[in-house]
Specification:
Number of strands: 10
Mean pLDDT: 76
Largest sheet: 6 strands, mixed
Strand content: 15-25%
Helix content: 25-40%
Shape: globular
Strand order of the largest sheet: 3-2-4-5-6-10
Radius of gyration: 38 Å
Length: 255
């Protein structure tokens, strides 16, 4: 091949490659669709780690912390993290006052329902931290259901998808496209931690209240019974007095 021809061919190839690179640089990349959905996390070494599999494919151990966050991340590969401060909301904080019998386990479950921008006009529940006491063999989905009975799921090729937790949101299952993603949150928010003490106090108060109510009712019935006996006694006494007066009056008349 002659040198002039090789030089011309090399120049042509260079021009074509430059044109391809220029077109690639100037053509905007197609933006990925954005959807709202519940993302599933576990806590490892004090940090949230997004899970690629759903909770039905996971098996938390006793002492684990699991978390869920509802949002519409701009990048589906980087879901928005739950806004809990893990230095304050940890396993001991959530499950420290719970006990598990033989064959059971305790798992802390953090639920972050997201922000108003993702609520589509609905009222956003407050973030909460709950302790699930479940059988040792329970998977992540069963663990979640133990603390959030009103759970909506949908079948998929990857296993059950979590669509709604504690009734939120009421409809949809990661299938509602939105115009833009929810910005990642820089700060943390307070998580309401459920405690057995509150429940016990409520229960004791309820039992006490019920007992007081029963006592009051019983006392009232007792008082009514006593009053009835008193009235009956007075009536008998009046009858005896009247009868005695009549008898005495007859004796005087006869005399």
């Amino acid at each position: 091949m002659h040198a002039p021809f090789r030089a011309a061919l090399a120049a042509l190839l260079t021009l074509l490659l430059s044109a391809v690179a220029l077109v690639g640089a100037t053509t905007p990349a197609q933006a990925a669709d954005v959807y709202r959905y519940w993302a599933y996390f576990t806590v490892t070494d004090g940090e949230f780690v997004a899970q690629e599999t759903g909770p039905s494919g996971a098996k938390p151990a006793d002492g684990d912390v699991e978390a869920y966050r509802f949002a519409a991340p701009a990048d589906y590969t980087q879901p928005n993290l739950p806004r809990a401060d893990l230095s304050e909301v940890d396993f001991e904080t959530v499950c420290g006052d719970k006990t598990a019998e033989s064959g059971d386990k305790r798992v802390a479950v953090l639920l972050d329902y997201g922000v108003e921008e993702d609520a589509d006009g609905a009222e956003v529940p407050e973030p909460e931290a709950l302790c699930a006491v479940v059988p040792a063999k329970a998977n992540g989905l069963q663990t979640l259901e133990a603390v959030a009975p009103d759970l909506r799921t949908q079948k998929s090729s990857f296993g059950p998808l979590v669509c709604g937790i504690s009734g939120y949101p009421e409809t949809g299952c990661a299938d509602e496209k939105v115009a833009e993603g929810t910005p990642a949150d820089a700060g943390t928010v307070e998580f309401a931690v459920a405690s057995d003490e509150t429940g016990d106090e409520s229960g004791e108060a309820g039992e006490s209240g019920s007992s007081d109510s029963s006592d009051t009712s019983a006392a009232s019935e007792s008082d009514e019974g006593s009053n009835a006996l008193l009235l009956a006694g007075i009536a008998v006494l009046v009858v005896l007095v009247v009868a005695g007066g009549v008898l005495l009056n007859r004796r005087r008349t006869t005399a």
